[in-house]
Each structure stands twice: as structure tokens, then as C-alpha cells.
Amino acid sequence: MPPRTKRTKREPDVVCKCRSHCTIYNAQTGQYEGDGEVVSRRTRDNHSADDKKRATRSLHLVTRRQPPSNEVPSEWVKLINDEVNVLMELPLTSPSQPLVFSNNPSETGPFGWPNDQEILLPNYGRHALTGHRSNHAILSTEQRLAELYTFLQLQGFGDAVEGVDLLTDRLLEGLKVITRAKEVEWAGQRGRTANDAVYVNSGTFIYARV
Fold first, then answer.
1. Average pLDDT of the chain?
2. Where are the stretches annotated Disordered (predicted)?
3. Per residue in 111-132, is it b (16+ CB within 10 Å) or e — as a string?
4. CB of 135 within 8 A of CB of 129?
């Protein structure tokens, strides 16, 4: 008889509560919330690495109230524009993975567009998304765009720095594109479009390009 092949023992799955993928930022409490996701240890380690990268990036761009003396505001504008370029290339939704809302679209009524203040609050309101993995891409992009917008507002660059107004408008437009993607998904799950026409999933990805 041929020798038995030794089976590799599969490591048990673990609960991951990373900020990048498995929990949701609550703008009202300022905390990441949720029970996390059950994933493999390897996936958890990868998520942990993503958290560290995100923390380093946020520390560089967001947590400092004033730019250091050896950097001029125009360099900050360029750094943020570069990051936005990357964010805009990431798909927000997938035709094979519908967004999962906290409230049932069929029972909650038509989508309500947020006002100028609400649109700056990530994952806010009755159209908030859950911590489901299908939502991770759109929530991560939304959170980052809102962080960068708030950062620019705190700096108070104003008209004195070239490109700030255009960048601010670009960040706001990106948040509107994300809201529009939620609106389309919400309407689709209700069986109608925003104009009350029959909704058909065209099988395309939605991006936040602006």
C-alpha cells in the first residue's frame, strides 16, 4: 500500500476587528464599531498590516494640526491629490457583491440625498452600510475622502494656496459619487431606479473617478 499522505492541520478561523476591512467607523461616536469578521489567521495578519499602513498614512496627512516649517502648503496639496488619484482608481461596488445596508431598502422608502453637512459624515444616516465585506471598498474610500476634506478645512489654507479650492471641490465631488453609488444600489434593491424606472443590474463596477 502507498504511504498515507500526511494532512496539514488547518488553523482555526479567528475574529478580525481591523479598521481597514472588518469594522465600521461611526462618525457620531468617532469610534470603529462592529463585531468584526471571521477570517483565516493569514487574512487577519494581512488586515493588520493594512491597518498599520493606513495609520502611518493618516498620521502623516491628518493628525498634525499645522504643516511643519520645512514644508509649504502646496506640497501638502500635491500629496493629497496624489492619494486621491489612487482612491479614484479603486472600484466602489461589484456586480457580484451587492452593498448591504443597515436598513432594508424595500421597507425604508426611497433614497434621501444627504444635506451639505451630512455628506461629510462617513456612513451616516438611514442609508448607512453594515460591516459586511461587500461594503469594505466603498466605506474605506468614503472614510478617507472625508478625512482629507476635514484636514483641508482645519488647515485654513483658504485662497492663499493654489489648488486648495479645486482639491476641496474634488474631494466633495468624490463623496457625492459615493453617495450616488449608494443611491443606485438602494434603488436597485427596491426594484426601481431613482426615477422610478425598472432597475437592471448592468454588471459593471462603479468607481469614484472625479
1. 77
2. 35-56
3. beebeeeebbbbbbeebbbbbb
4. yes
